[in-house]
Amino acid sequence: MSWSHTSARGERRVTEQQGRPKVVLGIGGGIAAYKACELVRRLTESGHDVRAVPTDSALHFVGSATWSALTGHPVSTEVWDSVHEVPHVRIGQTADLVVVAPATADLLAKAAHGLADDLLTNTLLTARCPVVFAPAMHTEMWEHPATQENVATLRRRGAVVIEPAVGRLTGVDTGKGRFPDPEAIFEVCRRVLARGAAPVTADLAGRHVVVSAGGTREPLDPVRFLGNRSSGKQGYALARTAAARGARVTLLAANSALPDPAGVDVVPVGTARDLREAVVRAAADADAVVMAAAVADFRPASYATGKIKKKDGAEPEPVALVRNPDILAEIATSRPREGQIVAGFAAETDDVLAHGRAKLASKGCDLLVVNEVGERKTFGSEENAAVVLGADGSETVVPHGPKEALADTVWDLVVERLPGK
User: Fold this and answer.
1) Is 279 helix (H, G, I), strand (E, B) or coil?
2) Rounded mean pLDDT of 393-399?
3) What is the second-level CATH architecture of the domain 208-303+312-417?
4) In the chain, what is the straight-line distance between the N-terminal and C-terminal CA atoms, in Å?
5) Which residue has the higher pLDDT, 284 or 8?
């Protein structure tokens, strides 16, 4: 069913828009409302039929003419407009996705308690599709126990509530509560729509997952290091898809230049020992840990405080190496939380499955994602192919495709093994 229109031009638009995913964009009364215009642009340009439903307060920041021009649909905040079309019911009933951006503390409270005093809150009550909230408010409001309880309630019901970003807020304030980047919100919406119905989308709601990504670097001197080719793209895909499925995500990013995914707490790390400390700390209350980072097996035995110089006519001194901690084996063995699921990645260049099975047995993890790597394989690519080995003897083949597809398969297998699922 398409959005309602009454004019002849509107009827033609209905025909043109049939079959396009229908997205309701709810806009709360916060200064970040202007940033939602960019989210509309990304949604419409990618083939989505968007209808804006602002609150009265939101129109103080961005007027109805702007929302109408961007979406091609009339804009109203009232349930009394076009009553014969029952908009307070129809808009939610016919939507494929509802995203509230920015979601103020007031809107989160109304949604959690089922209040319906305008068109947007009525739409939220009638929607039977996935719902995404992108909060934006001052840090004190976000951290208030009432807001946190409301967020927990919404997540428990299956809504995806994106964690706000950390940064400059209104005025001189800085902290957690900043509106996430519109492009990152769009990626969450895209993944939620790709997943389908709400109960499946939010199958990680209420769960805390830890993901490592990128490649560690082991310094040799102030300007040189031992590293690897990992871009972090697979780990970031795992973080994005987990957030889209409702999880609270901690991403331990080792030397990656990728933008922070929306709704994800990003912890930058450098060396393998840095990563180990971060993993141990983050895994303490995690339901699942997925180690996708390429961790250096070795590091230089000594660090030169000054740049190592070339000596005329002399060969360089050999670089002695020592072992780095085996983070995956340590976490899999210790299991700091009962029922915790631990998954690792094994990048191999030959005898891929044989090495993978041996590594699964030696590490003690629940799942091991085994893929073939090389100079032009996997590292830095947007796509991947793998076999996911399970400690229970299972083998799940993931054909060559987007790294997000592999990420979703990994989370499917994690969800199957989580206690209480």
Assistant:
1) helix
2) 94
3) 3-Layer(aba) Sandwich (3.40)
4) 34
5) 284
Sheet holding 248-254, edge to edge: 264-269, 248-254, 208-214, 288-291, 341-348, 367-372, 383-390, 395-402
Q: Where are the chain's structural domains? A: 18-201, 208-303+312-417
Residue 194 CA to residue 96 CA, distance in Å, equals 11
Active site residues: 228
Binding-site positions for CTP read 297, 307, 325-328, 345, 359, 363
Place of tokens 């109304």: 110
Q: Which fold has domain 18-201?
A: Rossmann fold (3.40.50)
pLDDT over threshold 70, residue 82: no
Q: What tokens were used for 3?
A: 């959005």
Reported as a single tens digit per residue, the pLDDT across 349-361 is: 778 888 899 999 9
What pLDDT sits at residue 12?
38
Q: What is the DSSP letter of 225?
A: E
Reported as a pLDDT band with limits 50, 70 and 90, residue 20 is: confident
Q: Which residues are annotated as a binding site?
A: 297, 307, 325-328, 345, 359, 363
Q: Which residues, 6 or more positions from 262, have their beta carbon under 8 angstroms from its beta carbon? A: 134, 162, 165, 180, 181, 184, 185, 187, 188, 240, 243
Q: Which residues of 228-260 are buried (b: 16+ CB within 10 A; e: fewer)?
A: bebbbbbbbbbbbbbbbbbbbbbbbbbbbebeb
The letter for the amino acid at 317 is E
Residue 208 CA to residue 127 CA, distance in Å, equals 26
